[in-house]
Amino acid sequence: MRSMRCVGRGIRMFVLLACAAAPFSAAAQQPTYGLEEMKVVAAPVIQGNRLDRYASQKTEVTEEQIRDLNAQDVAAALRRTPGVNISRYNPIGSFGGAEGGGVFIRGQGSSRPGAEIKTLVDGVPMYMSVWNHPLLDLLSIDSAHTIEVYKSPQPHVFGNAFAVVNLVPKRIEAEGFQTRLQAAGGSYDTFVASGDHGGKTGAWDYFVGGGYRTSEGHRNDADGELRDFFGRIGYRLNPHWSLSLFALWNDNEAKDPGAKGAPAAARLGTYETRSLVTTLTASHRYEQVEGFLKLYRNGGEGDWRDQPVGATIEDLYNDFLFYGLKAREVFRAWPGGEVIAGLDWDRTEGDYTKKISTGARDKWNGEDFVLFSPYLAASQLIGSREGLFAIPSAGVRYYENTEFDAEWAPHVGLILGYRDTELHAGYSRGVIYPGLDVIVFSEKVTPALRDTWKKLNAETVDHYEVGLRHRLGRLAVADVTFFYDDGKDRYVVVPPPPPPPKYGNVETYRIKGVEATLTLFPFADLALFGGVTLLETDPADLPYAPDFTASAGLNFRFLERFRLSLDCQYLSDFHVLSQARRLNAANAQEADEFLVVNGKIAYGFDLPPWKASGELFVAGENLTDTNYAYRPGYPMPGINGMAGVQLRF
Hints:
The chain is mainly beta. It has 5 helices and 33 strands. It has helices at residues 2-27, 35-38, 63-68, 74-78, 437-445, and strands spanning 48-51, 57-62, 84-88, 101-105, 117-121, 124-125, 144-150, 163-169, 176-186, 190-201, 204-215, 224-236, 241-255, 270-285, 289-309, 312-331, 337-356, 361-380, 382-383, 388-401, 407-418, 421-432, 459-472, 476-494, 502-523, 526-538, 548-558, 562-571, 574-575, 590-591, 594-607, 612-621, 640-648.
C-alpha cells in the first residue's frame, strides 16, 4: 500500500508540473520540428540516456543541465537524475568524513570504507585510496563538459566497479575563441565566481578555467569552500592523430554541523581535500579503426581535522596516489561489425599520518596494489537501422591483481529494433577488489584481524537488464528499464566466536527495480522531463535506496529573452548511514519522505560594443520550504535563493 501511495504522489507531482506549464505552452509559437528549433531549449534534468552497441546504458548530464539546475557541485548536478540519490550536510562542500557527501546509484555505493561506485575524471581514478571511497569535492564541475553516470557493470567500458560517475573535460571543437565569466551571491553569505576561456586555431586547441565557491551555511559549522583550476591543450599531428594534456587542481573544505541540538563538542570537525590530476592522451581516428593511449597520474590529500575521539582531538592526514595507463582500440573491419580491444594498468598507493591532541603521533606507512585488466568485446549489426535490425554482442574482461586471485567478467547483450524503437537485454558481471582499507584496518584499527585480509576474494555482482526505448521523431523519447543485481562475496569483519575476528566474503544482497524516463519537446521553446525509479532490496535496510523516487523538470523560453527552469524530486522513506562492513550490521535509522522543488529564471541580453551576450538570473532552492534531511538530525536548508550574472564573449 505504501508503494502505491508513493506512485500516486509521484504521478500527481508530474501532472501538476506539466499542467503548470500548459498555459505557457498555449502561448508559444506553433509547433515546428526542424532540428535547429529543437535545440533552442535544452533538455531538463538530464541530457538523455545513451544505449551503446553492447546493450549498455549511460545517463549524461551536460553543461546545459548543470547551468539550468544552478548546480554548484556534482551532488547538486545529479540530485534529480533517475536512479541516483545523494547525501549531504552543507549548501557548499561535501563533508568527506561521514554521510556529508555521497552519491548512490540504484542501491549501490553505501559501503564505507570501501565503495561499489568509483568516481573518475577524464576516465581515470579520483577518490580516496586509503579508505577506498569517493570524495565528491574532488570532482570539480567547472571543468566538466559532461557528467556520465554508468548505473551498471560495463566491462567493455570500465573495470573494478559496479557503477561509475565520470567527468568529461571541456574542450573547443570549432575554430574560434570563447570566454565565459559568472558571479553570483545568495543566502547564507554564499558567493560563487567562475570563468573559463578556450580557443581553437589551426592544429592547436586549448581550454583553461576555474572557480571559487564559499558559504557560511544554514547552520553553525555548515560552512564550506571550493577552489579549482583546470586546463587542457591539444595538438593535431595530422588528419588522423592528435595529442592532448589535461590537468585539474582543487583545494576544498567542508565542516560537520553536527546533529541538531547536540553539543558542539560532538561535531566531527573539518574535512579538507586537495588533488592534482594530469592525463596525457594520444588518440587516432581512421575510417575503420580508432582508439587512444592515456597515461595518468593523480595525487592528493583527504585530511580529517579536529575529529573528537574519546577525550582527545585527532587530525588524520590521508595521502593518495594513482597512476597508470589505459589503452583502447575499436576496429570496424567488415560491414556492421565492431571489435573492441583494450587494457587498463592501474597502480594504487596511499598512507596516513595521525596527530593527537596529547602530542602523540601515529603513522601508517602505506601499501600499494596493481591491477591489470585487459578486455575484448565484439558486436554485429544485422539488418539496417532504417528498418528491422538486431545487434548481438559479447565480451569479457580479465582481472589480475597483485594481492588477490584473478577474476573474469563476461557480458552478453542483444538489441532488437525497428527504426526508432529498440528492445535491449543484457547480462554483465561486475568485479571489485578490496582496497587499501582492508590493510589499514588489519594493521591499525583492529590489529586482531592480522593478515586475514589476504584470504579475501573480489566482490562480484551479476547484473541482468531488459529495457525498451522509443523515440517519436524529435518530439519525445521514452525509456523503461528493468534490472536485477545479485551481489556475492561482500567482504565484512566476522566477529567472535570463535576468536579472533577475521575478514570474510560472506555477505550477499539482491536489488531489483524499474526505471522509466520521458523527455518531451512539444514546442521549440518548451522541454519537459519526468522520471521514476522503484527499488526492492534484500536486505531491506540498504542505505539510500528508497522504494520510490520521482523527479520532474521543465525548461521554457518566453518573451524572447526569458528562460524558466523548474525541477523537483520526491523520495519515499529511506534508510541512512553507511553500510558497515560488519557481519549482520543493520541500518536502523531512517529519513522521512520529502518533496523538494527548485527553480531558476534568467533574462538574456546582448552587449554589441563588446560582441558579447549574457544573462541575469535568480535561482531558488526548496521553494516550498520543506523540512527534509538526508540524515536524521541534519536538516537541509529551507527556502533560499541566489542571484547572479553570466557573460559570454
